[in-house]
Amino acid sequence: MTSSYTVQPAQQIAGRVRVPGDKSISHRALMLGAIADGDTAINGFLAGEDCLATLSALRAMGVTIAQDEASTVRVRGAGLRGLQAPQQVLDMGNSGTAMRLFAGLLAGQSFDSQLTGDSSLCQRPMNRVAEPLRLMGAEIDTRDGKPPLQVRGARSLHGIDYRLPVASAQVKSAVLLAGLYADGDTRVVEPAVTRDHTERMLKQFGVRLRRDAGAVILAGGQRLTASSVDVPGDLSSAAFFLLAASVGGAGELQIEHVGLNPTRTGVLRILELMGADLQIEECRKDAEPAGRITVRPAELQGIRVPPELVPLAIDEFPVLFVAAALAQGETQISGAAELRHKESDRIAVMAAGLRALGVQVDERPDGAVIRGGTLQRGVVDSGGDHRVAMAFAAGAVAAAGPVTIRNTANVATSFPGFAGLAREVDIALEEHDHGN
Ligand code: S3P
C-alpha cells in the first residue's frame, strides 16, 4: 500500500495534545523486560511498526508478552539465559534500533539467529555493530556490511574496552547488551554524548553500571530485575508539532507528558537559537524526565547549528531543515554526515524535497546550507522515510499553497495516528491511499 498527504496552509495551530510513546524507550523496555527476572509492566508503549517488530521477535524467542491495550504491555521476563532459539528469520522491518540492539543481545545467546529487514534497513551499515561484537568474541556475518545478519550462538563473549568510531546510541547499546553476557567488564567510550536510555533503564532494572569520563562500564553476568516502565511521549514525534505551531501564524499548542531526557533535547535548544517561543516545564524527574512544552508562533531566524548539538538532535534534522527553509536568512548545518545513514539519506532527500518547494539548498557531505524564506506549493517525495514525510507535513502549514507529500506509509513505523492528531490541532491534512 502506498499513501500520500495533502496539507493546506493553516490559519492557526492550537490545542493540547499528547504524542505516542518514545520509540527508543519502548524498544528497550521490551528487550530488558524479556531478559529480566519477573514481570515488567510497560505503560505508554509505542505501538508503532518498529516496536511491534521487536515485540514479535521476542515472542518468536519464547517470551510471553501481553498487549492489554495498544500502549499497555506486560512482559514475562525469561531471565538472562531464558530466550529460546527462534524457528524463523527475525524481521526487523524498518527499524535500525531493533536490528542493532538485537545484534548485541543475540551475540550472547546459545543459539543461532538471523535478522533481516525491509529494503531501507537492508541498505544500512551494520559493520559498526558487527565489529565491536566480533572483538567481544561474537561470530556475526553480514552481506557486505549490510543486513541480513547471521548471528552464531554458543560463543563465550569477553568484555572489551571500546571507543565508538561514530557517535551512536545504537552501537553503544548493542555493546552494553552483549556485555551482560560477557566475562569481565565492558567499557564503551563515545566520541560525543548520545541518548542514554539504555544506561538509565539498565540501572532501573538493577544493573550496576558506572559512568566515568565519557565512558560507561558494566560487569558481565548481572541479572536484571523486572520493573515498571512509564514511557513518556516521544520528543522526536513532538518535534513535528513544535515546528507546525512555531510557523503556523497564530494559536498556542501544548504538548503534555513528553520526554525531556537531556540527551534528546538538542531540537529544543536549536529551535530556541532560531528564535522559537517554547516554554518547557519539567514535571517528572524519574528514570526518564518528562514534562510539558507550550509553543507559540515566532519569527524564526537562520543560524549556524552548533555541531555539539547535532547528536542530541539527530532524528530531528528533517524538522530543522524545514524550519530553516521557513526562517529568515541562512542556516548552516555541518557535522551531520550520520544523516546519510538513517531511514533514508536525509540530507539528499530533504534537499530534494525543499528544492521541489522552491527553496535554495546547497547540499554538503556532512550537512547543508539552506537559504530561508518561503515554501511554495508543490509535491515532495519522502523517500519512504517517516520523519521526512511528517516534517514536510508540519512545515506545509506555512507554505504558499497546498503541499502533497508522497510515500507516507512508513509514518506508521513511529507515529501511528499522526494524521488524526495533526487534524486535532487544526492542520488541514488529507490522507490518500493508493493501493499497491
Ligand atoms: C536510536 C539511536 C539513534 C537514532 C535512532 C534511535 C536509539 O541512532 O537515530 O532513531 O534508539 O538508540 P544512532 O544511534 O545510530 O545514531
Task: Tell me what you see in this structure.
The longest helix is centred in the first third of the chain and has 13 residues, at 23-35. The chain has a 4-stranded mixed sheet with strand order 25-26-1-27. It is globular. 53% of the residues are buried. With 436 residues, it is of the alpha/beta class. The protein has 2 domains: 2-21 and 232-434, Enolpyruvate transferase domain (UDP-n-acetylglucosamine1-carboxyvinyl-transferase, Chain); 23-221, UDP-n-acetylglucosamine1-carboxyvinyl-transferase, Chain (Alpha-beta prism). The termini are close together. The protein has 12 helices and 27 strands. Helix 7 (235-247) runs parallel beside helix 9 (317-325) and helix 7 (235-247) runs parallel beside helix 11 (386-395).
Keywords:
436 residues; UDP-n-acetylglucosamine1-carboxyvinyl-transferase, Chain; 2 domains; four-stranded mixed β-sheet; 28% helix; globular; binds shikimate-3-phosphate
Major beta-sheet overview: 4 strands, mixed
CATH superfamily of the largest domain: Enolpyruvate transferase domain
Structural classification: alpha/beta
Arithmetic mean of pLDDT: 97
Q: Which ligands accompany this protein? A: shikimate-3-phosphate
Q: What is the count of helical runs?
A: 12
In CATH, the architecture of the largest domain is Alpha-beta prism
Q: What is the beta-strand fraction? A: 25-35%
**Low-pLDDT segments, ≥5 res:** none
Major sheet strand order? 25-26-1-27
